[in-house]
Write a structure and sequence with these properties.
3-stranded antiparallel sheet, alpha+beta, rod-shaped, single chain, 2 domains
Length: 137
């Protein structure tokens, strides 16, 4: 019988130890990554749920150059109106609109509006809280 040299046995032990160490590092990294991702998903879900029911239309007015909408924030967080669409087309917002909880804010949309037409207006925030209405001029 041939005897295995001692050097060879040490190399096998080192390789097994290296593989076990890599498996352990991968497992710990996966657990940390999962925890990080789930914390961010939970935060985003809570924020979205707080803002999703947030915007209600109080009133609006329209003239040939502006649509002014008064929106009430019924959510628990500040809502910032970031985008506006009139008849499906992006429309510019003339003012920065941040509405505190239980407060009313005015959104001023600029454009050329013609008397006798009805316009479909959609206002939304970064978390997709939306207010949609039809403005007849």
């Amino acid at each position: 019988m041939t005897k295995t040299p001692p050097r060879s046995r040490r190399a096998t032990t080192t390789a097994v130890f290296g593989v076990l160490l890599l498996v352990l590092v991968t497992l710990v990294s996966g657990i940390l990554f999962y925890t990080f991702v789930m914390d961010n998903v939970n935060f985003a879900t809570e924020t979205l749920n707080n803002q999703i029911a947030g915007l209600l239309l109080n009133s609006f007015s329209i003239n040939s150059t502006h649509i002014v909408a008064l929106l009430k924030n019924t959510g628990a967080q500040i809502i910032e109106v970031t985008s506006a669409y009139v008849n499906g087309l992006i429309t510019s917002i003339a003012n920065l609109v941040k509405i505190a909880p239980n407060a009313v804010g005015a959104v001023v949309l600029t454009g050329n509006f013609i008397a006798g037409n009805t316009y479909n207006v959609k206002l939304s925030s970064i978390f997709n809280a939306q207010a949609t209405f039809q403005a007849a001029f």
